[in-house]
Amino acid sequence: MSLAGKVAVVTGAARGLGRAIALRLADDGADVSVWDLNLHGAAETVQLIKDRGGKAMACGGSSAKAADIATSVAATHAQLGRISILVNNAARSPFCKFEDITEEIWDELMQVNLKGPFLCCKAVIPDMLAAGWGRIINISSSSAQTGSARQTHYAASKAGIIGLTKSLAQEFATRGITVNNVPPGFVDTEGLRDSPVDIDAFAALTPMKRPGRPENIAAAVAFLASEDADYITGHTLSVNGGRYSN
Known about the structure:
Layout: E1 7-11, H1 16-27, E2 31-36, H2 39-51, E3 56-60, H3 66-79, E4 85-88, H4 103-131, E5 134-139, H5 142-146, H6 152-172, E6 177-182, H7 190-194, H8 199-204, H9 214-225
Parallel strand pairs: 1-2, 1-4, 2-3, 4-5, 5-6
């Protein structure tokens, strides 16, 4: 599944799923622009890509702020060229009892998890339209499919990502752009280890009895970014070890 000649943007790629996705797209031949608030972590991802023979650059800033996105797009154009693949991965996944979710907490999470992908799509779709080719892969969550106690705001934001995906897919289906989403379920990342989830206990309740690996998500993203997936759009490709079947 060669992505040679393509330029990919991966948001939130300083670690975890984003880093695994950036590495996989680079391995498949794409030049990768690594976006993250954590510029040091983004630079580490870039170095890992370069160590494997790939081409990459790092952009620091928020993928939920239009001004930061515009700066990152301009830098990507200057160093790598026009953007043909966008992976909206940057997000926060906090735990909070519903009674404790304030309007401020709700708005802040929606800004990052839902408005951010909207703004990134707005910023890069013109490149894709000009080329007559584009791939947008949004990282949603199995929590949007199943619900998640103490994560009402998070699950709602990720359900919004699924709706965004389906709507954009319909709007751009005749213009060379596919839009799909991957909802990870229970993947072993730094974020999962830092969460209050009892990993072993939760794993025992799942069909495969183990967490997934970031590379499992990266493989799904790489497929959806490839030419092999050119007739797939508006699709939710669940990668969750059987936690949720749809």
